[in-house]
Amino acid sequence: MTKLLIARPAPPEVHEALQGFDVTYREDSAPLSEDEMQDALRDYDGVLATLGDRFTADVFGKVGMPRCKMLANFGVGYNHIDVDAAKAAGLQVSNTPGAVTDATADIAMTLMLMAARRAGEGERLVRSGQWSGWEPSQLLGMHLTGKTVGIVGMGRIGQAVARRCHYGFSMDVKYFSRSAKSVAYPAEHISDLKQLVAAVDVVVIAVPGGDDTQHLINADVLAAMQPHAFLINIARGNIVEEAALIEALQAGTIGGAGLDVYEFEPEVPQALRDLDNVVLLPHLGTSSREVRVDMWMMAVENLKAGVAGETPPNLV
Ligand SMILES: NC(=O)C1=CN([C@@H]2O[C@H](COP(=O)(O)OP(=O)(O)OC[C@H]3O[C@@H](n4cnc5c(N)ncnc54)[C@H](O)[C@@H]3O)[C@@H](O)[C@H]2O)C=CC1
Ligand SMILES: O=C(O)C(=O)CO
């Protein structure tokens, strides 16, 4: 019988869809340890894994030619998996594109509004019991409507953010991408990153993580931003040089930031937590019940196809 490992607690829909397979449901929400990953590759035909499960070249190297032929990732970002090493070991790797797009774009807008309108600070003020009532100069933020957004990485999520900004907030859209995109609303392609960030009020990062984008947003890029501008990161923590961001926020050389992801996630530096001009969310991009079920079902379809020897619908 085909043996499957589901590496995180799964909803009933998954149990239903995998009837007929010999399935091990891991009830631990923590990432797989290196030993668990090696055992998974040796003992199962297919593994459904997710963010935090670091399937490195070393893990594949220690196993050699594994029994496992299919690694279905729950999530669109797969920078925690060495896909080349997986392929060399005979595995197919898949992800869950599309299912995550709108929810993650919504969290980008949440961060944008919270940072620009100082909502986190306001919430802390009310909770502290120190709020002494409405007054005209209290917690003045930046009005988002009509401002300019700069999207770094104009893929599915980048475009979903751009649509929200254009249609919902009458914002001008500029973007940095390797090629120009054809979209239904006005959007200016800028092929120089510093030029883009210098020209906008809000920068939104939506490129994939991994070696290619490591510290794409470094001290130089942050220095090119306008002093009132906000940096929003809903993509991966390693894209932003976190130490440089902390310096910029402390010095007030940018207006503020909104972060859903962190360089050394789940570690969030105390220096960041001490700052008022940054909104910090715990990687909430896709955390809605409906979206998570869609992601599960997509990952399950990929897993089933892969262990049947077929090409999964969302092969990486
Ligand atoms: N915070 C969260 O919970 C979530 C975060 N994510 C992250 O968002 C990322 C983007 O997801 P999608 O939009 O679905 O991916 P996508 O592949 O549709 O879009 C990424 C875009 O970035 C562009 N790109 C890649 N490298 C680039 C570079 N060096 N410079 C400029 N552009 C570059 C690609 O050409 C593509 O257009 C994922 O890889 C994932 O890491 C995704 C879902 C949820
Ligand atoms: O899909 C992803 O890449 C995430 O970060 C979590 O949904």
From TrEMBL:
Top-level class of the enzyme under EC nomenclature: oxidoreductase
Gene3D superfamilies per UniProt: NAD(P)-binding Rossmann-like Domain (3.40.50.720)
Residue span, D-isomer specific 2-hydroxyacid dehydrogenase catalytic domain: 5-316
Annotated EC: 1.1.1.29
InterPro entries according to UniProt: D-isomer_2-hydroxyacid_DH, D-isomer_2_OHA_DH_cat_dom, D-isomer_DH_CS1, D-isomer_DH_NAD-bd, NAD(P)-bd_dom_sf
CDD domains registered for this protein in UniProt: GDH
Pfam families: 2-Hacid_dh (PF00389), 2-Hacid_dh_C (PF02826)
Keyword NAD: yes
GO cellular component: cytosol
Keyword Coiled coil set for record: no
Keywords from the named record: NAD, Oxidoreductase
Domain D-isomer specific 2-hydroxyacid dehydrogenase NAD-binding: 109-285
Superkingdom assignment: Bacteria
GO molecular function (one): glyoxylate reductase (NADPH) activity
Family: Belongs to the D-isomer specific 2-hydroxyacid dehydrogenase family.
Name used for this protein in its record: Glycerate dehydrogenase
